[in-house]
Design the sequence.
DNA sequence: GTGCCCTGTTGATCTGTGTCAAAGCAGGCC
DNA sequence: GGCCTGCTTTGACACAGATCAACAGGGCAC
């Protein structure tokens, strides 16, 4: 289950430092965190936790992708969050989970038992502060997603998703506008549909449509070639201000 | 603009204590907050702030209702938050606003300049903690709303909205199931449409439909009579677990 | 190779909701 | 009263996306 200690990634190599929980911790504080942390890995498709489960662990994503989903009894579900490396799961002060959490790729979590973690929060005030910042970023992202779900067309939804993936995947300073970008999608059509409030058929048709219109190219069904990001901006209705999306 | 000091409400009489920012403050801490607070009032329909405005004030809603909206350039807008008494606006550490904030009824805010407020946050750790809890509640609410926007039908959306209003308006322990409840809506058809990702015509038709099917009664267009809340639960696809909705 | 499973694509059709347009209704003001 | 103006309702129609169904392709076991 857990990595061996020798190969285990450490908090100090969180892949995207500025978003990470411990972004502002000094060495002593990192040491405090290291003392109580442990790792868990999951296979693609594996359920991490279900709605209503006791929440006695909080965690940071070290590598891989996971999803948060909310469902109705009749089987309809809506993805409400996409967890990428450095994102945080769980919440101090809450004892049960509100969502289904699933690994969509091989996933490694850096976990902390809730009780000692809460104790550390009191001891290290700027950890609490950082957690608040991250929660507010997530809130902004959720609200942007509400705009997408409530008001955008299927094509705009797809375009927005591609923009989001591009932003989180590619070097922000590289890839000048007008250069063809190669974008590898980490999720299936079904996951996308779930994310966008669409059906898989509609997602598939939109990809075909965008390809026929020359806005994107497809290489297999997990790789998208984007000749001009600007075109996608038009399709997506995104004003490109770079606000947090997830 | 501001209330006279004599009639000004104080933080200690926040109408819904358990959700309020200062819910766990002692007298000394309340005094610290009181020293830097001031009040602002707005008329129904008045714009409080626009997206991109500098955010040098944070505030708690004392009375009335406000909305948060996110829009695309072509005029489409989606409401992303409903602010009721005791809800909090603004965020420490962020300098510009992400949304349009509008008063939909006569509104009173209890404001704090951002700088001194941030200083207080450091001085009073459990204020920070409370802020985190509130942000996480908002996040849960936003995510429930994503399920509604992405997967529910127009009728279910209306029913969910009525359930939400009922929960926030009515005495939670009163009104046994099976008793007719009288629910006064604080928002117009347009605001509802904006909230639900629908058009005003669809909202209107759904109200008519629910009335014709005997699920609700209408008394004017701002008052809804609900013979049996259980019926609404069925319509809304809400499992009624009482999780935070906004 | 064959058969099976899983994911994705494409087609035909249906339907819920948006769009456009007109009319009803209440409140305010002259 | 009459005439606004703003909000709501209702109708006719169009269309985006859902639904149902068939098929294609790749990976894998055998």
Sequence:
């Amino acid at each position: 289950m857990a990595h061996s200690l020798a190969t285990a990634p450490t908090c100090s190599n969180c892949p995207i430092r500025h978003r990470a929980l411990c972004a502002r911790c000094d060495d002593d504080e990192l040491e405090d965190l290291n003392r109580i942390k442990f790792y868990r890995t999951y296979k693609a498709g594996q359920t991490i936790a279900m709605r209503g489960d006791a929440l006695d662990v909080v965690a940071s994503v070290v590598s891989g992708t996971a999803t948060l989903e909310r469902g109705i009894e009749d089987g309809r579900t809506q993805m409400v969050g996409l967890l990428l490396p450095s994102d945080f799961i769980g919440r101090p002060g809450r004892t049960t989970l509100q969502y289904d959490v699933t690994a969509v790729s091989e996933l490694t979590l850096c976990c902390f038992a809730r009780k000692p973690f809460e104790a550390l929060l009191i001891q290290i005030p700027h950890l609490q502060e950082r957690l608040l910042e991250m929660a507010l970023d997530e809130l902004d992202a959720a609200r942007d997603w509400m705009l997408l779900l409530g008001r955008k067309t299927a094509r705009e939804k797809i375009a927005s998703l591609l923009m989001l993936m591009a932003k989180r995947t590619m070097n922000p300073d590289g890839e000048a506008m007008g250069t063809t970008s190669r974008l590898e999608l980490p999720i299936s059509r079904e996951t996308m549909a779930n994310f966008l409030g669409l059906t898989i058929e509609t997602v598939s048709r939109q990809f075909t449509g965008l390809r026929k219109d020359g806005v994107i190219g497809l290489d297999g069904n997990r790789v998208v070639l984007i000749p001009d990001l600007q075109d996608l901006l038009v399709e997506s209705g995104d004003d490109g201000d770079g606000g947090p999306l997830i």
In short: Residues 188-190, 200-201, 203-205, 207-208, 221 of chain A lie near DNA strand C (CB under 10 Å from a C1'). The longest strand of chain A covers residues 57-63. The CA atoms of residues 159 and 232 of chain A lie 6 Å apart. The helical segments of chain A are 27-36, 114-123, 125-151, 154-169, 189-196, 200-212, 229-236.
